[in-house]
Design goal:
Radius of gyration of chain A: 13 Å
Strand order of the largest sheet of chain B: 1-9-8-3-4
Shape of chain B: globular
Distance between the termini of chain A: 37 Å
Strand content of chain B: 35-45%
Shape of chain A: globular
Helix content of chain A: under 10%
Strand content of chain A: over 45%
Helix content of chain B: under 10%
Largest interface: A-B, 24 and 23 residues
Oligomer: heterodimer
Chain lengths: 115, 110
């Protein structure tokens, strides 16, 4: 149990376009979802925290107008990278937690390449 | 910010125990210690967590010092598939956020 999926697993987009990444909890209701970014050979960096039905809380230095997060249901959160640039190329990972546990269940990640 | 420090890398012979240390000297009384690992280009995988007592599951054992300022993850019989980056995380009671440190790259060698 406690499986989190992400779609797509890989995406290539042109500079200036927007791309949406989906994160789904497949077999549980996620009260909170988290988005991370990971550059090559670096650790995961927390970008934002989202709770279903409310606005996301962004970490310092993360542009909320560039990285739009929507947590429309207890099983789905989306991250939209708007007006993507090559420096946004990264590995984006989501995680989800449920009320009865502080453990985070991580998705497999999405590799974004902006050309 | 991450509240943990770990050695950047460690080697371990296949079949031997791997002992991965973590310092978390500023941990608060109600903060848990979590261990995750990340195999290349995958999402992190949960290993184990604890508050103050030692814990054991099918994957590993977690030893937390009495003052809770450090802990050790033990993989009792390391295999080549255990080669990964291991992250020790102190879970913030503030919205249960995880701030990852740089982790330890464990190289299991035949």
């Amino acid at each position: 149990g406690a499986v989190v999926s992400q779609h797509p697993s890989r995406v290539i987009c042109k500079s200036g376009t927007s791309v949406k990444i989906e994160c789904r909890s497949l077999d549980f209701q996620a009260t909170t979802m988290f988005w991370y970014r990971q550059f090559p050979k670096q650790s995961l960096m927390l970008m934002a925290t989202s709770n279903e039905g409310s606005k996301a809380t962004y970490e310092q230095g993360v542009e909320k107008d560039k990285f739009l997060i929507n947590h429309a249901s207890l099983t789905l959160s989306t991250l939209t990278v708007t007006s993507a640039h090559p420096e946004d190329s990264s590995f984006y990972i989501c995680s989800a937690s449920r009320t009865e546990s502080y453990e985070q269940y991580f998705g497999p990640g999405t590799r974004l390449t902006v050309t | 910010d991450a509240k943990t420090t770990q050695p950047p890398s460690m080697d371990c012979a296949e079949g031997r125990a791997a002992n991965l240390p973590c310092n978390h000297s500023t941990i608060s009384g109600n903060e848990y210690v979590y261990w995750y690992r990340q195999i290349h280009s995958q999402g992190p995988q949960y290993i184990i967590h604890g508050l103050k007592n030692n814990e054991t599951n099918e994957m590993a054992s977690l030893i937390i010092t009495e003052d809770r300022k450090s802990s050790t993850l033990i993989l009792p019989h390391a295999t080549l598939r255990d080669t990964a980056v291991y992250y020790c995380i102190v879970e913030s009671y503030n919205f249960n956020k995880f701030y990852f440190g740089s982790g330890t790259k464990l190289n299991v060698k035949p």
